[in-house]
Write a structure and sequence with these properties.
Largest sheet: 4 strands, antiparallel
Structural class: alpha+beta
Number of domains: 2
CATH architecture of the largest domain: Roll
Radius of gyration: 22 Å
CATH class of the largest domain: Alpha Beta
Number of strands: 4
Helix content: 25-40%
Amino acid sequence: MKQDRFLIGILIGIAVLVAAALVVFFTRKDNQVYVTDDTPTGVVQNYVVALYKRDYEKAYGYLADLEYKPSQDQFHQAFLNHNVDPSNAGLEIGSVEISGDSASVTLSTIFSQGDPFASGYRNTEYAALVREKGAWKIKQMPYNFWSYDWYNVNTVPAVPAGK
């Protein structure tokens, strides 16, 4: 009899935990919302939200018009081919430093482990922005949100065929 009550108590406890988890899951606030993009932090947030929502055209619009900017097709292909994959990282936006037409936004990139008992880790990195025609545009972001070859000239010279 005592064992039956103990087992029933455990089952009720499990049911309460499952119900609480479902309530939290369905009532949590969606943090993937667009904000005004008139500040460097707003531009960074909107860029990341657009990537999470797979709105690559909108995300591309936040890139600076600098030399060696990827084409819209190259940008889109980087995500489709998983060369750039923001799905396995979260981002926490920190402080911003503005100096004239340049800005730097402190970002904490948060990575989770595949193991449910392992704690994740975070890296502190920076986003670099420039002001173009009165609007803030991104010229560099952390790796999971950016390809290493965007805005970089290929430093290896091409060798003509046959030489």
